[in-house]
Amino acid sequence: MTRLTQMLGTVATLAASAGFCAAATAATVYANGAAPGDAFTNATAINQGQAVGGTGWYYNNVRNGGSVGVSTSYARSGNGSVAFSGTAGPGGASYKADVEYLAGGVSVGGNYYASSSLGLFSSFLGMSYDWYRSSGSSNSPVQHPALRILLDRDGNLATTNDRGGLVFERTYNVAGSAPTDAWVSDMVGGSSKLWNFGLGLGKNEFDIDADGTPYDTLDEWQDSELLQSAVILGFSAGVGSGWGPFQGAVDNISWTIGEVRTTSNFEVQTSEVPEPATLALLGLSLAALAASRRRKG
Questions:
Q1: What's the confidence (pLDDT) of residue 32?
Q2: CB 260 within 8 A of CB 23
Q3: Reported pTM
Q4: Distance between CA 151 and CA 163 in Å, rounded?
Q5: Contacts of 130 (CB under 8 A, 6+ apart)
Q6: DSSP H or E stretch at residue 129
Q7: Can you list the residues of the chain whose pLDDT is less than 50?
Q8: Strand-strand pairing, 183-188 and 231-240
Q9: pLDDT at 2 (0 to 100)
Q10: Contact 163, 121 (CB under 8 A)
Q11: Residue 167: closest CA among 153, 186, 148, 139
């Protein structure tokens, strides 16, 4: 056991004895390709996806020329992040592109869907992420990559007509345009306002507490009788579906379910290739070592 492992174990033990949430997992999610990374796109109107290695993350719901991929375009917390771009497709068709973590993700017609759950929605404590909007974007100035929790409302994974999610967008929580050319960190907690899509509620932006506004807090969604059996299918960040031209990114997506916090940082692998002079010196060193061994033999 290394000293670092021992120290981490001690910290976890002390936190647990103090009653804190000590369990946490952090993963580095690498692009499928080498630098500059990935840019998965699909020109058709039929949603398509691609697995990001075996990480449980997927480029998903990509259509009409939308693009998504772990790349070096907008470096954050390392050399990469998940970059998005899109313009209006053929005939003004609406592009879309997401990156999603799915429980037991399976491909259906080229797009990915969850086949299991991460736990009860009632155990969900919050989520966070970093996002970036380039000044080269000309869509609505309040729009930036959204963050979503994906749900199955009745908890029965055999039925799919009640699947959907809750969406965080800064504009319903903080007034004003989204900052550009700068990374922004947002946290979603009990008082954060979210709107729904799907969930078998009859419409998007459903007023869950009947107070006259469809932008209800996480606490209000969790308190609703309609979602008491809901389970978590995964998490999603993305752009498009009615947007104008956009360029931006997300990174450090995190969520907490029960006593476990999970964080994903997106990076691009690089292979360090020695300079020719270094290779030459290495060759001379190996040759000298071989000669020395022959003399000793």
A1: 98
A2: yes
A3: 0.84
A4: 6
A5: 76, 77, 81, 183, 184, 185, 186, 250, 251, 252
A6: strand 124-133
A7: 1-22, 273-297
A8: unpaired
A9: 34
A10: no
A11: 148
Size (the chain), residues? 297
Q: What is the dihedral of CA 91, 88, 242, 105, to 10 degrees?
A: 100
Torsion sign over Cα 220, 224, 229, 234: negative
Tokens representing residue 135 in the block: 């000044």
* Secondary structure string (H, E, C) spanning 232-252: EEEEEEEEECCCCCEEEEEEE
Task: Report how far residue 165's alpha carbon sits from residue 195's, in angstroms, rounded to the nearest whole number.
Answer: 8
CB 158 within 8 A of CB 167: no
How far CA 140 is from CA of 8, 137, 170, 242, in Å, comes to 45, 9, 13, 10
- In whole angstroms, give the CA distance from residue 252 to residue 235: 13
Give the model's pLDDT for residue 126: 98
What end-to-end distance do the CA atoms of the chain give, in Å? 38
Q: Cα dihedral sign for 127, 128, 132, 138?
A: positive
* CA pair distance 156, 148, nearest whole angstrom: 20
Backbone angles phi, psi at 34, to 5 degrees: -75, 170
